[in-house]
Amino acid sequence: MRVLLIEDHKPLLKALRRGLEEEGFAVDSAEDGEEGDYKARTANYDVVILDLMLPKIDGLTLLKEWRKSGLKTHVLVLTAKDTTSDKVHGLDLGADDYLTKPFQLEELLARLRALIRRSHQIKDPIIRISNLEIDTAARTVKRGGQSIHLTPREYALLQFLAFHRGKVVTRSMIWEHLYDEYDENTSNVVDVYIRYLRTKIDKGFDTPLILTRWGEGYMLRADEDNGKEKEHG
Amino acid sequence: MTSIRLSLIVYFSALLLVGLGAVCLLFYMQTQTTLEQKEESTRMLYVKEFQNRCSEAHSQFDKQLVQQTRFLASRARGSNAFFETLVSAGSVSSVLLPGGQVNVPLVGLHPQLVWKRYNRGRPFDLFLAQRNAESREDAFEVEPPDPAHYQLFAADGELMQQSSLESQEQIKLDDDFRRAELYTERLDMVSINGQKFRRVTFKGSVPKSRLASMSFSSRWVPQAGFKGGFRPRRPSIFDAPAPVFYLMCEESLAPVHAQIARFQSEFNTNLADLKQATQDDLSKLNARLWWIALATFAGLVVGGFGVLCLGLRPLNRLSDAVSRVNERDFELHVSTLNLPSELRPIADRLKKTLEQLGKAFEREKQASADISHELRTPLSALLTNLEVALRKPRSAEQYREVLEECRGSGQQMYHLVERLLSLARLDAGAVQMKNQILDVSTLARQCANLVKPIAEERGLSLRVHADTAVHLKADPDKLREVLTNLLHNAIEYNRPEGSIHLSVRRENGHVQLEVRDTGIGISPKARERIFERFFRADPSRQADTPHAGLGLAIVKSYVDLMGGTIDLTSGDEGSTFCIALPAGDVASMDTAKEPLAMAFVASTRVLQ
User: Fold this and answer.
1) Cβ distance B312 to B9 under 8 Å?
2) Is there a smaller number of Cβ atoms within 10 Å at the N or the C end of chain A?
3) What φ, ψ does residue B550 adopt, rounded to 5°?
4) Which of B374, B392, B543 has its CB closest to that of A8?
5) d(CA B246, CA B177)
6) What pairing do the DSSP bridges indicate for beta strands B185-192 and A47-50?
7) CB of B344 within 8 A of CB of B365?
8) Phi/psi of residue B202, nearest 5 degrees
9) Which residues of B381-400 are buried (b: 16+ CB within 10 A; e: fewer)?
10) How close, in Å, is residue A91 to chain B by CA atoms?
11) B interface mutation test: which of A5, A7, A8, A9 has the most B CBs within 10 A?
12) Residues of chain A contacting B385 with CB distance shorter than 8 Å
């Protein structure tokens, strides 16, 4: 999941970035309004974490402009302004969530997950595909009752596939959503992670869940497709 | 008295009471006087009437008595009491009267009345009928009416006839009356046995005509020495004066007095009635006045209350408007134009005060919001760093990195807290200036050296132009803080590769400290508010600066405390803060007469 973090307080930016990255988020950052605006408009983010008091262009102006120009990315406002009127104002301008500083990292992460689920129209935090269970809240994966340990990156990839289950996701889509601006784009990074994931998810089970569509990309089998297609990557 | 309304109504009522009381009293007194006058005049009338009636009664009484007396007198004149009846047998005879010889030619045989003559030694001086026992009752022929008693006297005072007067005193003739004219009446008042009587004394005479039917012949009487010749004519009975009699009638005044007493009692009754009527009128008036006063008082109090309420309505409006003022709305919702002129200055002043209060409140609110904001940002950085670090085991290097970050955040908060405390101390007046004589040039250089590394980091050049040994009596710590703050500011808002000039010089008994930067400048609008707390020329903050818009506020406060001034000039090429501090008498200590401008290049430009 890729987030854009717009925050002008460098120490906080740095700490948040580290925290989010360690949770498997791909994090892009911007330190002022202009940069944030540019990045939010050019890349496809799952969530934008937006501070309100920013140099050059302030957060509320950015939000207003984005909503006016039809940008649908979820925005979580993260600010030290804590009065009710500030919150109401922020939410009315099109923010999807509002969190005041200082905050608990856990809460921020939970809100981010909720926002991402919402963007994929999923209410149940547990996604079940065949005998695979992905708990998006606890970030745990089980198959056939057995829990599988995944690295944050692997988990993020599986979750992304699960959000788009039954649909083909291209390598570039995966790239865009799972890697930040500083990751080096080597063509086989996605393939390598798919292989890791297959080893952990499908190995030892009769029905492979991760399918390869040659020339297109990858797909996580949906429930109704169960057993119909048997293709091996 | 807590309520204006109540106190006014009480004062008004008191005034009303006094006024009404005075009016009623005056009216009452006036009416009383009029009534008393009327009573007096009526009383006079009664008195007059009473007197009239009394005199009327008296005169009536007198008139009656006189009439009776006259009547009696007329009867007396016609009675035979004064005469003697003689019977002649038609022969001429002479009668020897006691007084002398008189030849009385008697004609006829019928009885004739003959005047009795009292001989008093004067011939024919008076004839009076001799009272005799037979004729006594017949003197008036009929029993005379009314008078209580009467007496009839002959001219010589002989009592001829009287009413039964066993117990009565005899009425005496006095000599005065004897000399009185004939047919005169005299009215007297006499007191007999303590009883008052009215007496009428009448002097009358028996008419001579009564003698008409009588014929007298007088016998000649030879006089001594008479020698013959013509005998002189003898005086006739007609020549004699008519016999005089006196009639005295007395009548008791008791009936008159009874009548007068009745009149008196009537008069008294009338008077009492009159008095009573006046008293009644007065008491009626009194009661009426009380009622009128009471009704007027009640009406006026009620009306006055209404008028007061009406009059106090603007005050109520103002008070309502004031009570609607709260911490969210500092505006006084009342139009001063609609208020009476007495309240207008109050409302205007209130409006102004509230406006100032509102602004102050807004500033305070903004300040606390700013403080919380400024504290929250480094605090959240600190917490996030710690939380992230604690999520999983890390290498020593990583922990070290996190701790460094945390220290940075902590320091930022520390600076902010320090500044807030400085401002709080300044507000409380708890800042003490520890003044001492110091060399400002040296101090300026020290400050420049302190911020030099930061300037270098940003690629800025810092130059110091200072006169040698500029002495000043000031608090070195505060002055240092002022200069460092200004220098930090100059670094923070400078453009890349800009420069900062710090100059110290003495001028007209002042020490001038100048910090000039080559930044973006400050807009005129921002210049007015630049020394306000939490004010930033650029509303978006530089997150890593520790000033939080408090630096210049502190600088201004300190400079004010030192008795100096701070000015700001700003343009496109940068801003200049110029501080002028009064040098006082320490200026003479400076040995250097000529300002020796020593350019001190504090820093070289360091490029990133």
Assistant:
1) no
2) C
3) -105, -20
4) B543
5) 9
6) unpaired
7) no
8) -120, 130
9) bbbbbbbbbeeeeeeeeeee
10) 19
11) A9
12) 11, 14-15
Residues B190, B148 contacting (CB under 8 angstroms): no
Q: Name the minimum distance, in Å, from the CA of B411 to any CA of chain A.
A: 12
pLDDT recorded at residue B76:
72
Whole-angstrom Cα distance, residue A32 to residue B542?
A: 10
Task: Give the residues of chain A that fall short of pLDDT 70.
Answer: 184-187, 223-233
First to last CA, chain A: 24
Residue A107 gets which letter from DSSP?
A: H
Residues B540, A56: C-beta atoms closer than 8 Å: yes
Chain B nearest C-alpha distance from A57 (Å): 8
pLDDT of residue A226: 46
pTM above 0.95, yes or no: no
C-alpha distances in angstroms, B443 versus B99, B567, B583? 182, 21, 15
For A83, the closest chain B residue by CA position comes to B369
Asked if the C-beta of B518 comes within 8 angstroms of chain A's C-beta atoms, the answer is no
Tell me which DSSP letter residue B146 carries: S
Quick: pLDDT tens for B560-595.
888 889 988 888 788 899 999 887 766 555 544 444
A29 beta partners: A5
Which spans in B433-523 are helix H?
A: 440-457, 476-492
Shortest CA distance from A15: residue in chain B: B385
Chain A: give the shortest CA distance to residue B318, in Å.
Answer: 31
Amino acid at site B417? V
Contact B20, B293 (CB under 8 A): yes
Question: What 8-state DSSP symbol labels residue B310?
Answer: H
Amino acid identity for residue A204 in this structure:
G
Cβ A6 vs Cβ A33: under 8 Å? yes
Task: Please report which confidence band the pLDDT of residue B230 belongs to, taking 50, 70 and 90 as the band edges.
Answer: low
Q: How is residue B277 written in tokens? A: 């009527």
CB contact under 8 A, B544 and A10: yes
Structural element, H or E, at residue A64: helix A59-68
Chain A interface with B: residues with Cβ < 8 Å: 7-12, 14-16, 18-19, 22, 32-33, 53-56, 58, 80-83, 100-106
Burial B94-112 (b: 16+ CB within 10 A, else e): eeebebeebbbebeeeeeb
Per DSSP bridges, beta strands B111-115 and B83-87 are antiparallel
CB contact under 8 A, A101 and B380: yes
Here the tokens at position B568 are 């700001």
Which range, of B130-134, B147-151, B337-341, B554-558, averages the lowest pLDDT? B130-134
Asked if B388 lies within 8 A of A102 by C-beta distance, the reply is no
